[in-house]
Structures are given as structure tokens and as C-alpha cells.
Amino acid sequence: MTLRSLSSRVIGRLALRATSVVSFAIMLMPIFFISWLSFFKNEILAFPPDGYTLRWFSQLWLQPQFADGFLTSLEVGLLATLGGLALGVPASIGLSRYRLRGGALVMTFLMSPLIVPSIVIGTALFIAFVELEIATDLPINGSVVGLALAHILVTIPWTVRLLTASLVGFDRTIEEAAMNLGADRWRTLIRITLPVIRPAVVAAALFSFVVSFGNLEISLFLVGPGQTTLPIAILQYLEWKIDPTVAAVSLIQIVIVAGGMLITNRFVRLSQVV
Amino acid sequence: MKADKSMKLLTKSPSRRTVMKSIAAAGAATMLPRASRAAGGKVVVGTWGGDYQNLQQKHVVAPIMDKEGVQVIFATDNDSPRKTKMMAEQRLPRGSMDVVALTGSGMYEMYTKGTLHELDFAKLKNASYIMPTLKTKYSVPHIYTGRVILYNPSKVTEAPTSYADLWNPKYAGKVGVIDIQYQTTIESAAMINGGNLKNYEPGKAKLLELKKTGVKIVPTNEAMAAALKTEEIWMCIMWKARGVQWQNAGVPIKMVSPKEGLVLYVSEMGIVKNAPDKDAAYAYLDALLAPGPQQGFIDDMGYNPTIDNLKPSGEMAQRIGFSAAEEKTMMVQDYDYLAKNDSQLKEWWDKEFKS
User: Fold this and answer.
1) Which residue in B22, B65, B28, B26 sits closest to B43, CA to CA?
2) Who is most buried in A46, B60, B75, B100, counting CB within 10 A?
3) pTM exceeds 0.80 for this model
């Protein structure tokens, strides 16, 4: 190995490390700033801070909307995740296994909620639900079911994209072996296919939950009287106040989600998933 | 057959006992206090959330509505979704909201779209106290404040008196405007360049002059507060109540009313045309106008009362109130002009001023 090639390898390695560090720094910067800001003493966010306090965390008890919003977001997020998987898993298997006529068109259709702005989806769904109520007397608008159905729409693209990517590299001979040994299609799906694509299913569930939990635009139109989601509660708080309370709420949310991911990690290695 | 039965019922002479019972019932009903007619109802209030919702809960719901037995449910979101919902639900026999809170211009827009119920002010005990400048036939004013000039007294040593002072070359590069306040900014510029509330056009040329001096454009009210705090900006136009909140938060500013006049920001409440419970909605509007809740919004939010039987007193009068001379210059925006011109004003702002 020549000195030249050695030095170019060292430079390459250093460049890779530097890029990794910068990438991580960029990704962690919002979390770092939110955490830092939540302890600022000054009500108007400006640098440098006047001092540090835990006051904004204690203020949260005076804003019941944040707790209510968190619970509603959690409920809708879980329903949307389950609904997204229930629709996304069969759709992905169907699209990746069978050469369907118009399969590409179906895939584009399933991806379309990512292309259409959320605010347009929210408005369109609201108007559609009103028309449905006129026709059937079913009050879907303002119900958790209506909200969850709308959120399912935005989780489907994530589920389908992640699962089809996983299924492309799937070795079908394992399934064939199972069927040769007497397993029917359903048993093969449950015992072979799903366990193999489990990391992708978990990743899809995580992405779906995060997308639903943080959704603001669709929820704004479909949330019912007496209900709020956490993003709406944060937005509404900012309408009248600009103190670091929202940073404190966000930090608590980050801690809870991170805790959830750590627990999940005990069952599925997240590093293999995302 | 059915028609015959109906005719018989209509033409049948009522017995003396029935007539006496009806008269007694009608008489008893008129003797009941108005609020009790709404007792036991449910009112859904479409409103902004956060502090505005919390203070309604504290000053309107807890002390008045709960005692009247009217259940209040808040439907919180922003103006745009609220207006969209009102328009989309027009065809429903029963809308999802009874009462809606909107800005003056938003309320006018909804009235012109036919989504609001014209109020019967005889059903509001406190209606006679509403400030005449703020009265409309489709809403009640809840709170108001005026548009003033905010300045940093350590940097702007000579207190401004006019919007024109923002154009003073001494402060070039230290004046800020807020992107989302494009309407009021063009309006203010128009007021010192031959325009008025029915004609914002002269404001455009004046703002282009300000642009040449290096005006800072910040995206939101919050960004303006931060820029004032760090003294990156020394002077701007803002609602007085916001200025008071920023003073409370330690921003080094003073406020002054421009000599061109005091244009008001009014938060209004109206009843939706297809409100499921109009009696409860009237009870809510009446409670909003009562002196107790109005005082609560003075103390906790820094906005002025919209009724003339209550004035801010003591320190609050100094901080949030307006003098008799200032009150004489109060004016409300021409909502019709704004509704017709908003899109072209926004287009000019984005393409010509901000570019």
C-alpha cells in the first residue's frame, strides 16, 4: 500500500466521520434547542437567556388542554397506526407479489396523500363528511373515528412504501418451502411472511404513529367540539402567548416518545428497523 | 282525511278553561327573567384556544354559565378552519357550533356569506351598554384594543406622534413590520399619504419608500417581540394589548397612539344561523357583555371592555386604556373594502414589497 493511497483512505475516513458528526448535529439541533429553551427564564425567547427556571413545566398544570390534547393525539395515533397497518400490509403484499394490471397506478394512488397538501386533505375530508352527514345523518365530523380515518389516509403511504421495499428483497422460496410442507396461504403469511418483514412492520408503525401524532392541518378541520390534539393545543397557546411553555410541552412529548422507543427496542432492535 | 282533521283542529273553538290556561302560561313566561329561559341548555363556542379559552372558562363559564345550568363546550381552532366549517355546514339543519368568535373582518365576511344569525338585541340584557362604535347587527363585540406605535425609549428618545415617524431617516434600518400584518401596515402607510380606511392604495408607494430605508420584515408577532427584546428593531406598529403583554414579558418598549387616529382590533362573537341551541347562545353572548367577565379580560388579558358601563381603572387605565381625546379618534376598519381588496393587497405585499 503506497503512502498516497493510505493518506487518501485516511482523508476519506475523516471526511466520512466529519459528515456523520455534522449530520447528527443538524438532526439533533432542534431537540437540543427545544430542551434548552424550555428552561429559559425570559418569557420572550431571546439569546442570551436572563437565567434558568423550571417554571414553564409547573405552568403546564394550568393548561389542561395540553394533557387533553396529548391523550387525544395518543388515541388517534394508535388507531391510525393500526388502521394504516390493516390496510397497508395486504396492499403491499398484493402489489409486490402479483403483477396486477394498473399496479403502478394503484401504488401512485396510495402514495398520493404525500403529494396533496395536508390542509387540502383536511378541507376536502371535512366537506365530504358534511355531505355524508346530509345523506346519511351519520355525524362523522367531530368524532374520534372520523379523525382516525383521516389520519389513516396519511399513514398509508409510509406503511406501503416501507413494506414494499422490504418485500422486494424477500426470498419467496421460504414461503414455497412452508407450503410444500403443508402450510396453507394464511398459515404461511402468519408464520413465515410477517415474521420476516417484522422490522419493516415495526418501522411502518413507528412512522405512522409519528406522522399521525404530529399532524396539525387535517386535525384542525376534523377535531370535534370539546376535543383538541396536542399540535392544535400548542398552536392555540401560541396565538396568545410566546413563553417557553410550548418548549416544555414538546420536551415532555419527546421524553415520552423516546421512552416508548426504548421499550420497543427491547422487543425489536430499532437499529435494524430504521 | 288528514287535511280534514287538521281543519277541525284549526276551526275548533277552544274551551274557556283552555284559553285561561294559555293566558296564564303566556303571562308566566313573560315574567321569567330572560337568562332562565336558556337554563339547562348546551352551547358550543367556536373560539381560539389557549389563554382566550381559559379566560372564557374562568370569567364567563364558571361564574355565570355554570350557575345558569348551561353547559359550555369549546371548539378550538383558528379563524380559517372555523370559517370553512361555518360555510361547509350551512346546509346542515344543525351546525356543530352555536357561538363563534372571529375578528371584526372575519365576522363581517361570515355575515355576507349568510352563515350568521341576525341578533335580536332584545334578548341581551347588556346590549344597551355596547359601545356604539362597535355595534353591528350580526355580532357583539367582546374585547378591543387599538393600533399604536411601539418604540424603544432608550433608542427613540423623542416619542413618536405619527405613523410618519417610522419613515424618519434617523431610524433607518431599525424599523420593523410584520409579514402577517400586511393589511394593517399598508393601511397605516395609506393614512399618512392621502389614503384612508376606504382606500389603501396610497400606502403602497409610501411603503416602497420605507423598503428603500432598509425596513426589517419579520414573519410573526412573536418574531417582532424577540427583535424588540434584542433591540434589533426599535420601532413598529402593533396592537396596544400585545404591547402590554410584551412589556409584562420584559420587552423595553413604550406605546403611543398615532395622531392619524386609533384603528381598533375587535374580537367579536356571533350566533351561527343553524346553531342547535340559540337560547343558550344568547345567554352566552349576554354573559360576555356583563361587567364581571369584561373586568376579567381587562385584568388578565389587557384588552379593553366593549361596554360603556365599565372602564379600566387605576394602573390598568394608564396601561391599556385610551384617553377621551384618543377615544374621539377611534375608528373601525372598513370590512367591506378589506374583503374586496384583501387578495390584491396580499399579492402586492408579496410581489412588490417583500421581493
Assistant:
1) B65
2) B100
3) no
